Request: fold
Amino acid sequence: MSFQGPLPAMTPFIPESAPFSPEQRAWLNGFFAGFVAPQPGDAQPVNIAAPAAEEDDAPWHDPSLPLGERMAMAAGKPLQRRMMAAMAQQDCGQCGYDCQNYSKAIADGAETRLNLCVPGAKDTLRMLKTLAEELGGAPPAAKESIKAETAVVAKDEVKPGYSRATPVDVRFDFRRRLNKQDSEKSTYHVEIDLSAAGIDYTVGDSFGLFPENDPDLVENVIAAIGAPRDFPIADKTLYEVLRTDMALGAAPDTLFELISFITGGERRQKAKLLAKGEDPDGDIHTLDVLAALEKFPKLRPDPEAFVECLDPLQPRLYSISSSHNAQPGRVSLTVDHVRYIIGDRIRHGVASSWLAERLAPGSSIKAYVQKAHNFALPQSTDTPIIMVGPGTGVAPFRAFLHERAVTDAKGGAWLFYGHQRRAADFFYEDEMEAFLGKGVLTKLSLAWSRDAEKKTYVQDKMREDAKELWAWLERGAHFYICGDAKRMASDVEKTLVEIVVSEGGRDEAAAKSFVAELKKTGRYQADVY
Reply:
């Protein structure tokens, strides 16, 4: 990134005492000003708002499709529609919006953060930045129209405890491991006390938590930049800011921009390429903040400039696995403890490690309820439900079953669940057996991918029971999926289309239309990530 001509007058971001030359300080001040001030643009007026007729037609908005393919399908569409295509999945809620309202808020200028699409990560962030450049020539009338529409969302989100912007204090109660000792995984049932928070929820909702970074990782990052841990950043220390406020995961492009300016030679060229999303050494996908600093050792950036280059630490959303009607004043979560090795270092999931290892019982934490977007039980308890949720995807369906037990639902419930090994990875086994015994759960189909030479997945169990599954759909059953969007959910939907072909006597095109109609009428709902 380069700047030509004199910089406009501004409040400096880099203090005079920072160890930079006047030229460097001017460049950095301009660099950071570009992220907080609106930029003049030369773009032609753009069509921001999407025609209402297009709202249900988003073939490119599929998380299983590569970003480039989604954007090609959205070519020529209004800006907001292309922004939605850039986002990694439809209405996951992790950004605090649904995709449509997030794109509207960006286009309006009410939302300046382009990095909120958690599943989309850096690729989506780069695409949103590119698309946002078109806003320079947007007609004021179009922007005002969008502002009026997004005002409705903002009004709903001010209630304490029901928005990432207005979290409340809740109490972490306890955790217990769901896997048996010989499992290759570590998954925890987490209980949180809401009794003093004044909030409740509906099954299908998600729960947002504000985690903290691993203190060891924070210390290593501070050591890598050679700064004192008590260096003042606003009203906090550098250690406190990195622990609670800034993301230390995937290194952002802005960090590589900074590195490119304070280093030289071949290292500078590599940093510039990394800032553009290129991969000169084939390691870009392994570079978290610490790894990026270790790749360019002995840098000594100004701590304030370094912090400004990092992304904010975002809250994490988890599908709620309990019923407030069954357990008033409490919420349960089902959390996979994420850990993996890159090089000689173990990487830890931010929120999952915080919940599984460091958070002490009785701790007060910030949290909020994220209301579900089109993921809820049928209004009538006489309506059958089919639920597909392997691994932690079982979470909302445990909530559904507890709710159905309280309401004495008679419609029938069928759960497809799977994991690696039955003896080690059957989450909530005792509860599921009890639900079967009481008739709350009508049928339980289990798939274990490591118990036999041939791996069995939930979609395989669907094929085995294709005739009965089709009969349930003909009776009006609602179909639900929860879990991995790119693999499991995509495979399950393809399998459902196959079943409509084989058992419903339709050709493939008609079967896809049938599934699309299920989605349109709310009979096919997904909570995927």
Notes: Residues 478 and 523 are 4 Å apart (CA to CA). The chain has four domains: 52-156, 168-210+315-370, 215-308, 385-528. The radius of gyration is 25 Å.
